[in-house]
Amino acid sequence: MIKRHWLGALALVAGLAWAQPMGFQHHGNFTQMMRSGQAAGQVALSPLEGVPGGWGVGALADLRGEVIQIDGRVLVSHGSDPQGRVQPPGAQASATLWASARVSGWAQVPVPATMGQPQFEVFVQEQARARKLDLEQPFVFRVTGGYSHLIWHVVTGEKPVAAAGGHTPQGDGGHGSHVSGHANQASGQTVFRNPQASGQLVGVYSGAQLEGVVSHAGERFHLHYIDDGMNVSGHVDQYTVRAGSMLWVPLK
């Protein structure tokens, strides 16, 4: 009897990880992955393809690339591609990290002024709170428009090579940018920079519940970029959103 109750409690705790509001789901754990160095696939990508209203971000198994979902369409950017170009995932592709939600409706909020990253994060939280979203819980959001400062990376899955002084050099992807990205201790990466970028940011807000799980430890935002032509994509490191862009907040 005791064993049965213990197993039932364990199943309930496990179920709570999936009982997120607004159709939110997640696989893998940023903090655990960074500590252990283990990046095996946690979820197959093929079942995620074509999910109505599906928006999400993640990283391929073994950190060999990035994943983005645009209204149900799943695209991957492999670390082996020096341009960071996207393509459909292979039939057996999987992600080691994944966070997404199904959204049936959006509130569109014009961005009133050009905002750097810290200011824009506050703006997102203010607009979410104004629409009665619980900031303790995770949700997805989007940005469409232009960016006067945008740096993103694609992980390669290769072991980073430490330079003198213990720092890990970053590739510039042919764009002349050297920025220390989040994943540089777990994987090599190619870094891209575009001071005149336009396109879409797909973001995950972790809330307190999933901070360090679907976002890096100490952060509550995890964003990926895809250009207007849906040609290139990757994990965003830094950004500035231009005035006149549009923030898309999910409706409850």
CATH topology: 60s Ribosomal Protein L30, Chain: A
Enumerate the spans where pLDDT stays under 50 for 5 or more consecutive residues.
1-20, 163-180
**Gyration radius from CA atoms, angstroms:** 18 Å
Distance between the termini: 41 Å
Major sheet: 8 strands, antiparallel
What would the average pLDDT be, to the nearest integer? 85
Q: What structural category characterises the helix and strand content?
A: mainly beta
- What is the total number of structural domains? 1
Please tally the helical runs, counting DSSP H or I stretches of 4 or more residues: 3
CATH first level:
Alpha Beta
Strand content: 35-45%
For the record, the CATH architecture stands as: 2-Layer Sandwich
Helix content: 10-25%
Characterize the overall form: globular
The count of strands amounts to 15
Q: What is the chain-wise order of helices and strands?
A: HEHEEEEEEEEHEEEEEE
Query: What is the CATH H-level superfamily?
Result: Hypothetical protein, similar to alpha- acetolactate decarboxylase, domain 2
Task: Describe the protein's architecture and organization.
With 252 residues, this protein is mainly beta. It has a single domain (1-252), classed as 2-Layer Sandwich (60s Ribosomal Protein L30, Chain: A), CATH 3.30.1330.80. It contains 3 helices and 15 strands. Strands 8, 9, 10, 11, 12, 13, 14 and 15 form an 8-stranded antiparallel β-sheet that branches. Strands 1, 2, 3, 4, 5, 6 and 7 form a 7-stranded antiparallel β-sheet that branches. The radius of gyration is 18 Å and the shape is globular. 42% of the residues are buried. The model is unreliable at 1-20 and 163-180 (pLDDT under 50).
